[in-house]
Write the structure tokens for this entry.
Amino acid sequence: MLRPLVLIAALLAVSISALAEQCPPLLQGELTKLRSQETIDLCQTYAGKPLVVVNTASFCGFTPQFKGLEALYQRYKGQGLEVLGVPSDDFRQEADSSEETAKVCYVNYGVTFNMSEPQRITGAEAIPLFRELAAQSRAPRWNFNKYVVDAQGRVVASFSSQTAPDDPALLAAVEQAIASQN
């Protein structure tokens, strides 16, 4: 009776191993959604898709960029683009509570793309996603850094806080990432 269970366990181990190999390092892991018990499985949600990752903060001079990021998402989501916002207090400008962060994102700016719970994004305590973003480009130096990732999980461009979501260079990088799906 144990033999079929051993076989099933072996097949599951091989399947899990194969999935990990197919998932680029950048997308290995999970994040908890903002104001939710749900998680975002980065590989399952974003593998094979172009992605813009942004570290955000509720009380930064660049916070109005949420409006432009939402417009970017709406403009390109039909072509497969995903956007992931990752709030962080690493630069001391994030709200004290997830409720307040959610209000800024969802109520004040109408964000519909995925937002995670606040995370560490710099230094030795940075979450794996941001360690890999930094390894492929550079670590965030302030809030609202934008990383454009192609469908293979590679950073094709990164932009500073000063780069608006409708900047021609950022749009060109997004279109390059979208083209990588094919």
